[in-house]
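Work Package 3 (structural annotation) set out to generate three-dimensional models for the target panel prioritized at the project kickoff. During this period the team completed the workflow that converts sequence records into discrete structure tokens, so that structures can be stored uniformly alongside our sequence database. As a representative example, we reproduce one entry of 62 residues exactly as it appears in the project archive.
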Amino acid sequence: MINWRKSSRSGGGNDDACVELAEMGGRVWVRDSKDPDGERLAFGREAFSGLLERVKRGELGR
């Protein structure tokens, strides 16, 4: 069983759009909280760290 986590800042309401993260098999997995059975993305830890840095710097837009 995968232990999915989401930010404590997500609010927890039914209308919240949020991503959930899990670590498994040396990868970071990402899914949409509104569609838990839908597609999932898998990143190596280094690639995921790089993605987070780009988000923090505002390089990816909205």
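The radius of gyration is 12 Å.
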